[in-house]
Design brief:
Layout: H1 2-30, E1 39-45, E2 50-52, E3 59-69, E4 80-87, E5 90-101, E6 104-117, E7 120-124, H2 128-131, H3 134-139, H4 160-173, E8 177-180, E9 185-187, E10 191-198, E11 205-215, E12 218-231, H5 234-244, H6 246-272
Parallel strand pairs: 2-12, 7-8
Antiparallel strand pairs: 1-3, 3-10, 4-7, 4-11, 5-6, 9-10, 11-12
Helix pairs in contact: 5-6
């Protein structure tokens, strides 16, 4: 009896070990293989952070990178395209239309852009309409400035496109809006670079740098960087005072204006003597 029990236990242990050994490879074979991208986007910025000081007169940002591949590219794969978009902080923007009433030019109809970027630039290897379809551009946020909602006291304007064009002209005049359809330099379908001019009137905040890679009209991959723009020195102190102590900041501005006016009057008075 004892020997029979011992034999049964040995057989059960051997059977369990055999089942475990045969099941291990089966589980490994059932696991899906890890997919590896045929082309991978690698990008970087010349400046990870920009500091605005008293004598800040603008700067230049270089966006560059490379495309890493695990296979050879043939003519059948089509043309490689790179698009780079830089979007700054947003704030509401109101555009008024001048109207002549009773011989006087006054503000008439208006359009309100709730999320107008304070800086918006797009550079690409070729026009975005040729690089990606409208649906794909919307999916990867590579659209031009568009009004989220146009608000007016008497209802929506009759011609919202004219207000959008006026907003873009206003941004272009201040060098905070830029479209460069051939602004990306692509070398050997591997290395790419683009230069962006940052004007002196840029505001502080987080700037979103979005890089998109496409081939033959098909979106492949994207890369993203957040570049902070910060005030430094006297400008930072003024911004902090205006934000944390608005009453004292306002009183200080009034006193400074009075002091400057009195100083200018004294200078002119002595010159006349």
């Amino acid at each position: 009896m004892a020997e029979g029990r011992r034999m049964r236990r040995c057989l059960a242990a051997a059977l369990g070990a055999a089942l475990w050994a045969s099941g291990a490879p089966a589980q490994e074979a059932a696991a899906p293989p890890r997919q590896k991208l045929e082309e991978r986007l690698i990008s970087a910025l010349s400046d990870e952070e920009i500091t605005i000081q008293t004598l800040y007169a603008g700067s230049e940002l270089l966006v560059f990178g490379a495309v890493e591949r695990n296979r050879f590219i043939t003519e059948r794969d089509g043309e490689l395209d790179i698009a780079i978009r830089i979007r700054g902080p947003t704030e509401p923007l109101v555009v008024w239309r001048k109207e002549r009433r009773f011989g006087i030019w006054v503000n008439g109809e208006r359009a309100r852009f709730p999320d107008a970027p304070r800086y918006y630039a797009v550079a690409s290897t070729r026009p975005l309409s040729e690089m990606l379809s409208a649906a794909q551009r919307m999916g990867v946020q590579l659209t031009d400035l568009e009004p989220v909602k146009l608000v007016d006291a008497r209802g929506e304007p009759a011609d919202p496109q004219s207000f959008q064009r006026a907003a873009l002209r206003w941004m272009e005049q201040r060098r905070i809006y830029r479209l460069e359809p051939e602004g990306v330099n692509l070398r050997g379908e591997t290395l790419f670079s683009a230069r962006f001019a940052l004007p002196p009137n840029i505001v502080s905040g987080e700037y979103d740098v979005h890089i998109v890679m496409a081939r033959n009209g098909r979106y492949l991959e994207a890369s993203r960087h957040l570049m902070p723009v910060r005030l430094s020195g006297f400008e930072q102190a003024l911004a902090r005072a205006a934000r944390e102590r608005p009453l004292l900041y306002g009183i200080g501005c009034v006193l400074a204006a009075i002091a400057m006016g009195w100083t200018a009057s004294e200078i002119f008075r002595r010159i006349r003597r």
